[in-house]
Design a protein that fits this description.
28% of the residues lie in helices and 37% in strands. The protein is of the alpha+beta class. A hairpin with a 4-residue loop joins strand 1 and strand 2.
């Protein structure tokens, strides 16, 4: 099964995927080979994939921001050798969670962005200037995403 995860800054394609687990509003969907065509929004912003390499199953967890997915049995093109189930995930941001992810590094990045946002807010001189700038909106967005990553990493490490 083909798995494609794409964001503006990140791209991951794996062809040896055996299972994709995604949370939907209606519950958890486990997508296997020959799964019905499906599309939707990733509800809890977490997706887990299993791959089979060298007869060893590896699980990878991704924290996503504003993610949608498509499951298709048509493949990327119509040639016979590319037929099969494909899972395509498109997100605003992604962070791969594995054993090498340091909670300290993610927490430090979170604190840095929070400090940067506080600095931007302190530049506001009066109530008229209190309108959010685009930089502030982006920083708030990044902080929310990093907060989710920290929570997921803490949960997995405990």
């Amino acid at each position: 099964m083909l798995f494609l995860l794409a964001t503006p800054e990140y791209n991951n394609v794996q062809s040896n995927t055996t299972k994709v687990k995604v949370h939907l509003r209606s519950g958890v969907a486990e997508i296997l080979e020959q799964h019905q065509d499906l599309m939707g929004k990733v509800e809890n912003n977490i997706i887990e994939i299993e791959t089979n390499s060298d007869n060893k199953i590896e699980k990878t967890l991704y924290v996503l921001q504003d993610a949608v997915f498509v499951v298709s049995n048509q493949g990327l093109d119509a040639t016979l050798e590319n037929q099969g189930t494909g899972v395509y995930v498109y997100a605003k941001r992604v962070k791969e969670i594995n054993s090498s992810v340091s909670i300290d590094a993610v927490s430090k990045e979170f604190e840095q962005k929070t400090t940067e946002l506080d600095s931007e807010r302190s530049k506001m001189t009066d109530a008229v200037d209190q309108v959010l700038t685009s930089k502030m909106i982006l920083l708030e967005d990044e902080i929310e995403f990093l907060k989710k990553v920290v929570l997921v990493v803490k949960e997995l490490k405990s």
